[in-house]
Design a protein that fits this description.
Shape: elongated
Structural class: alpha+beta
Largest sheet: 6 strands, antiparallel
Oligomer: single chain
Number of domains: 2
Radius of gyration: 26 Å
Length: 346
C-alpha cells in the first residue's frame, strides 16, 4: 500500500513539474498564464494566487496550463494574422509547448545526477544478489533480508543462474559455503541448498540484482546524468514498440499502466535509490507520452501549430476546441485499448 501511495505522489509531483515547465516558459517570454491544473478530472480544490487560478484534480496523470495568448480565442478572426504568424510569436508558442517535456527531461537528469553523486554509476556488472525475503529455513541458517550474496563455494555470484550453478556443485551433504555482505562487512554462512519448482537451486530466499556501482567525479556524473534520460527514452520506446508489434518469444513486460503496476508490486523492498531510479523512468515516460501527436497533448499542439503555419491562417476557435475534445476522446479510447491489450498478453 505504501508503494502505491508513493507512486501516486510521484506521478503528481512529475505532473506538477511538467505543468510548471509550461508556466515558467510562458512567464519568462512575457505571456500571461491564467490557469494551472494538476491532474485530470473534476477539480477537488482550487485557489487563486497572483492572478493565476490553481486547480487540483484526482487523477495524477496529466493536467494543463492555460496561456491567454495560446487560447483558441486569443486572436479574433478579423485580427492581425501577420502578428500571429511572425517568427517571434511562433517561436514563443513552440517554446512554451516544448517546455513541459523539457521539464520532465530536466527532472530526470537532476535525479540521475543525485544518484550518480550519492551512490555512484552502474558499471553494467552485478555486485551480487540482494536478499528481499527469506523462508524459515534460510532464516535459521543465518540469512537475513538486506544481505547481498557475493560468493557460493568460492564462485562469484552475478545473477540467479550463477547462483544455481554454484549451488549445483555443492558436496554430497547438500551444504554450501555462502559469503554475504551484511552492513558493509563480509559474513560466511554454511547453508543447505534447495531446489525450486523450476529445478533451479536456491537458498530459500528471494532476490533482486545488486548492480555494481562506481564512484564518479562531478564532471563524469554530470555527463552521465544528461545521457541517462536519453537511454531511458530509448528503452521505453523499444518496449512500447514491442507492445504494438511483439517479437516472437519476447519476454519483456508490458510498458503501460499494467507493467508499471506489476513493477511496483514486484519490488518487495524499496530503497531510496530504487525509488529515485523509478522516478527517472516515470519522468521520461511522461515527457515522451506528451509528445505523442494527439490533440490535447503537447505533440498534438505542435501539430496544430504546424498546420496553421502551413496554411498561414488560424483555424476557427470552434474547430480548435472540437479538435481538442475529439483528441481527448481518442486518447482515452487508445489508453483503454492498450491497457486491454496489456491485460490480454499478460
Amino acid at each position: 500500500m505504501s508503494a502505491v501511495l508513493l507512486l501516486v505522489a510521484g506521478l503528481a509531483a512529475l505532473s506538477l513539474s511538467h505543468e510548471l515547465g509550461h508556466a515558467t516558459a510562458a512567464r519568462l517570454l512575457g505571456l500571461h498564464v491564467t490557469h494551472i491544473c494538476v491532474g485530470l478530472g473534476p477539480a477537488l480544490a482550487r485557489f487563486e494566487r497572483r492572478g493565476v487560478l490553481w486547480m487540483v484534480a484526482p487523477i495524477p496523470l496529466g493536467g494543463f496550463v492555460r496561456v491567454a495568448e495560446l487560447a483558441p480565442e486569443a486572436v479574433p478572426d478579423q485580427g492581425d494574422e501577420r502578428a500571429w504568424f511572425s517568427g517571434k510569436a511562433l517561436a514563443k508558442r513552440l517554446a512554451v509547448i516544448g517546455a513541459g517535456p523539457a521539464a520532465n527531461y530536466l527532472v530526470a537528469a537532476l535525479v540521475a545526477l543525485a544518484l550518480a553523486l550519492g551512490w555512484g554509476i552502474e558499471t553494467g556488472r552485478a555486485a551480487g544478489l540482494r536478499v528481499v525475503s527469506v523462508d524459515d529455513g534460510a532464516r535459521l541458517a543465518g540469512l537475513a533480508v538486506g544481505d547481498a550474496v557475493l560468493e557460493v563455494n568460492g564462485r562469484g555470484i552475478d545473477g540467479l543462474r550463477s547462483l544455481s550453478r554454484a549451488l549445483g556443485e555443492s558436496g554430497a551433504d547438500d551444504m554450501a559455503l555462502v559469503v554475504v555482505r551484511r552492513k558493509g562487512d563480509p559474513v560466511q554462512l554454511r547453508m543447505p541448498r534447495l531446489r525450486a519448482r523450476s529445478g533451479a537451486f536456491g537458498l530459500g530466499a528471494a532476490y533482486v540484482l545488486e548492480p555494481e556501482l562506481r564512484q564518479a567525479g562531478p564532471v563524469e556524473a554530470l555527463g552521465h546524468a544528461l545521457a541517462e534520460p536519453l537511454r531511458d527514452a530509448r528503452t521505453l520506446i523499444a518496449h512500447a514498440a514491442n507492445l504494438v508489434l511483439p517479437k516472437q518469444g519476447s519476454g519483456s513486460r508490458p510498458a503501460g499502466i499494467v507493467g508499471l503496476a506489476d513493477r511496483v508490486h514486484s519490488v518487495r523492498r524499496w530503497t531510496a535509490r530504487s525509488a529515485l531510479a523509478l522516478g527517472i523512468s516515470l519522468s521520461v515516460a511522461m515527457g515522451l507520452f506528451n509528445l505523442l501527436p494527439f490533440p490535447g497533448l503537447d505533440g498534438g499542439r505542435l501539430c496544430l501549430e504546424a498546420v496553421q503555419a502551413a496554411r498561414r491562417r488560424r483555424l476557427p476557435p470552434r474547430s480548435l476546441v472540437a479538435v481538442q475534445v475529439a483528441g481527448g476522446l481518442m486518447l482515452l479510447a487508445a489508453w483503454i485499448l492498450l491497457t486491454a491489450i496489456e491485460i490480454y498478453r499478460w
